[in-house]
Amino acid sequence: MITVENLTKEFKSYKKNPGFKGTVKGLFSREVVIKKAVDNISFHIDKGEIVGYIGSNGAGKSTTIKMMTGILVPTAGRCVVNGIIPYENRMENAQQIGVVFGQRTQLWWDLPLTETFTILKEIYNVSDQDFKERMAFLDQVLNLSEFINNTVRTLSLGQRMRADLGAALLHNPKVLYLDEPTIGLDVVVKENIRLAIKEINREFKTTVVLTTHDLGDIEELCNRIIIIDAGKKIYDGDLKSIRDTYGYKRNMDIEVKNADQIKAIDFNTHFNLPPEDFSVEINGNSVSVVFNRNKISAAEIAAVVMAKAVVRDMSIKETDISQIVKKIYKNGGELAWTRSQS
Amino acid sequence: MDPQSKLSLKQKFKIYWPFTVSEIQGALSYRGRFYFFIFARLLRIFITYYLWKAVFASSRQAMLNGFTFNNMVGYVFISYLTADLVNSGSSRYIGYEVVDGSIAINLIRPINYRTRIFFTSLGSFIYKLIMPALPIWIGFTVISYLSVQELPPAFTTIIQFLISLTLSFLIMFLFEFCFGMLSFYTTYIWGLNMVKHSVLRFLTGELIPITFFPAAIRKALNFMPFSSMNYTPVMVYLGKIRGVEYWQSIAIQALWVVILYLLGSFLWNKAIKRLTILGG
């Protein structure tokens, strides 16, 4: 469905020298700085796959998506989406894709939501019959009818995101690009959005390419992930191996009234886990526990701690994508190795 | 290949017309701004009116460069109305879309960017025509009849004026589109726009009729599209361009439509390759 070959995108910018002197100098001679946002990336995605395209901020995710959607023209290499080169036949390509940019809306800001759908119906040339069926389906998975008559600018972020997803799907695209679709949403809405994406993928065999910083999105949706860092591909494969190696680590920070109470607990007798699955570090009155949530739940740990000590505060952090990327990078697969050579 | 080339004109119209409608609806949903704009426009018209009143009062001649005072009043009103109508501000619109990156949203749709901007401009043309322009024109016509017994132009003149006005709108739109392409290079177009706005007000004859300019400048302006943007329809309305001269002016306007259309296509193809999407 999607083939990307040696795709590269460079951005030119001008180096700014610091201070007033630098500004004056910049008026006469400018030094061009070339930044490779995407650097020689290749992959292939089959019909009906849901692929997580991940990397830390500025890694080049959005730039790749923008080349696949035909907005940006690559500096080198090429990509083909369902037989069409997007940046050469932008309009033809647009007819068969749906895009959601989490940080932007494609809805008509000043109009009631229902108008957006009527306008899109004309733009994508959707027949009356299809329109009716599609709207019924979208309403069923996204509950659009709750707010379909409201003006778009009055919608909450969660409503807006559901509406945006609906708008991207009205013409039943073959490929759906989701650029951080759950950004800024609460847990319940996130869950709804994920369910809707799954449902659409199952029902219409829609290929989905998803960028996100949310591990939950990836775990629930993707069967395959591609990780990029500084514009280069550093991992392409199934989620399972990544998940087994890195994804299940959690960090629990506990603040207790008296550290001695914690020291008195013998965690080994309670859980009996190897250090890579469970480790405790005590620092004054704060305790940091790193654990594998596959092997033990946060509740179990909390129960043991709270039975023995007076807890003031407690927080759980999950490993985020940038940490995983960092780890992959450090551990060095073959890809990472070639990178340091070049 | 353009997938829309297979579509009939009617189908195309159906695709792009919503952009016009949504522009009108958008404008109407901010009514406070709407009334304020009318007030601001009237204020500007009256400032110019009193300026010319002072000029004519201090002059010993009743006629300046072929303009009587009543002619001049007509010129001031009509040229403000047409300048306002034809100026869709689409370069500013394109500039905003490039700066905040929302152009991305428009490029993921199977629609032609220029055609879309055109239909958006058409929306602003229609609501400006219905709301401030028509009432101001009627008010002006009634008052000038009651005060100095000036009759409005003949019906055929009005039709001729509307044809010329439509061409002016097209020229201005295409020019603005070309100008908007600069925002792909400079990213921030606001300053340039201010300069362009001031120069245009002068060169299109919005401030002063072009006949008041020195001969050399008038000659140079003959080779530029500016007089076709505003001066031509106003002079048609005032009956100062008619007969053979009218058809010549229309031909020149039509020529500029073609030239600027081709230039716009050329610039778009160059600019789109340079696009950098800002803001993620």
List the helices and strands and how they pair.
The complex is a heterodimer of chains A (342) and B (280).
Chain A: E1 2-15, H1 19-28, E2 31-45, E3 50-54, H2 61-68, E4 76-81, H3 90-94, E5 97-101, H4 113-123, H5 128-142, H6 157-169, E6 175-179, H7 187-204, E7 207-211, H8 215-221, E8 224-229, E9 232-238, H9 239-247, E10 249-256, H10 259-263, H11 267-271, E11 278-283, E12 286-292, H12 298-308, E13 311-318, H13 321-331, H14 334-341
Parallel strand pairs in A: 3-7, 3-8, 5-6, 6-7
Antiparallel strand pairs in A: 1-2, 1-4, 8-9, 10-12, 10-13, 11-12
Chain B: H1 9-29, H2 31-58, H3 69-86, H4 90-99, H5 103-107, H6 113-148, H7 155-180, H8 183-186, H9 190-203, H10 215-222, H11 226-229, H12 231-237, H13 244-274
Helix pairs in contact in B: 1-6, 2-3, 3-6, 3-12, 4-7, 7-12, 7-13
Largest sheet entry of chain B: none
Q: Estimate what percentage of residues of chain B fall within beta strands.
A: under 5%
Termini separation of chain B:
29 Å
The low-confidence runs of chain B, each spanning 5 or more residues with pLDDT under 50, are: none
Q: Which structural class matches the secondary elements of chain B?
A: mainly alpha
Distance between the termini of chain A: 31 Å
Give the overall shape of chain B. Answer: globular
Radius of gyration of chain B using CA atoms only: 20 Å
Q: If you average the pLDDT of chain A, what whole number results?
A: 84
Q: Any low-confidence stretches of chain A, pLDDT <50, length ≥5?
A: 333-342
> Structural class from helices and strands of chain A?
alpha/beta
For the biggest sheet of chain A, the summary is: 6 strands, mixed
* Number of strand segments of chain B: 0
Number of domains of chain B: 1
Task: Please state the CA-atom Rg of chain A, rounded to the nearest Å.
Answer: 24 Å
Q: Averaging pLDDT over every residue of chain B, what do you get?
A: 88
Query: In one word, what is the shape of chain A?
Result: globular
Oligomer: heterodimer
Give the amount of beta strand of chain A, in percent. Answer: 25-35%
